[in-house]
Write a structure and sequence with these properties.
Elements (H helix, E strand, L loop, with lengths): L6 H20 L6 H7 L14 H23 L5 H12 L2 H5 L7 H4 L8 H21 L5 H24 L3 H19 L13
Helix pairs in contact: 1-2, 1-3, 3-7, 4-9, 7-8, 8-9
Length: 204
Amino acid sequence: MRYSETHKEETRAKVLAAAARQIRARGPSGVSVAEVMAEAGLTHGGFYAHFASKDDLVGAAIDYAFSDRRAKLRAATHGQGDREYLINLVDAYVSAGHRDRPERGCPITTLTTELPRQAQPARDAFDAGVKSLIEVIAARMKVGEPETRRALAGSLVAEMAGAVSLSRAVSDPAFSDALLEQTRASVKARMGLSPSYPEQGATP
């Protein structure tokens, strides 16, 4: 059977999508190569046609997960101004939907505690993904110098991701919802998106 020129790329993308879901749901240590290949509709034996090792797969899948999130964010916020974009980003990120569907969510919220024990490909991909999200947010905040905006954006990413992770960990549903609500308000205020802080980039 002859395959199209794009067949290998399409197959690799299927494997990465399956691996990214497993990584976000279970963490890198919970990834099963056999299960990933089966979910992608492939045999285990075909794995090494696409990846040198499981570490190679995990690193590529983390990169894929971040890229997937960026693509969905671009599609959902196309044409929006900076203020609307940031409000919608915070509302979507610090949300019950994000909390309840980790397999579709931001890798930062599920991988942070495991990354120090992972191989370098995973750590490099994670670093790049975190920096990319910080840059996306910083670019939309127009007040202050670039370095100031990046520093604030880094702090905001840490606050948002931490809140989502904590909201998953607590057992009281009302407490979990309250943590998300309080964090949304705090992040918007720090971004200058609440009535008390009318300029983007203002800090309390």
